[in-house]
Design goal:
Elements (H helix, E strand, L loop, with lengths): L1 H28 L9 H26 L9 H23 L7 H18 L2
Helix pairs in contact: 1-2, 1-3, 3-4
């Protein structure tokens, strides 16, 4: 259960982080913010969203790390987090930026990531 809770927290954290990093681009596309919106306002908005990300990411890493009784080594946590990041980013891109398309090379990259997860869990 601890492993699944860690993964769930990492997914939630990555949703927040994806919005922090790329959500302002969609807000600009929707005319909520403009090209003239000062960069410091956009950065502060993103920081606020990223703060929410930390409330999930840090506990996920603390409880998931085997040194704290969790299910994963540090390398395993990092690879899991990177795969989740790319899956969340891909879904975000396809849903919110409809002009972005998935191509064969993106799918090939995902296969490589799945292999990375396999290899990091090998004993």
């Amino acid at each position: 259960m601890n492993g699944w809770l860690t993964i769930l927290l990492l997914v939630v954290a990555n949703v927040f982080m994806t919005f922090a990093w790329y959500g302002h681009l969609k807000l600009q596309d929707m005319k909520v913010i403009t090209d003239n919106t000062p960069l410091y306002i956009v950065v502060l908005l993103s920081w606020g969203i990223a703060l929410a990300e930390y409330f999930f990411q840090v506990p996920a890493n603390r409880m998931g790390f085997e040194g704290n009784g969790g299910a994963f080594s540090l390398m395993q946590l990092k690879v899991i987090q990177e795969v989740i990041t790319l899956v969340v980013f891909t879904l975000f891109t396809v849903v919110f930026f409809k002009g972005e398309a998935l191509h064969w090379n993106h799918l090939a990259a995902f296969v490589c990531l799945i292999l990375a997860v396999y290899f990091v869990f090998m004993k």
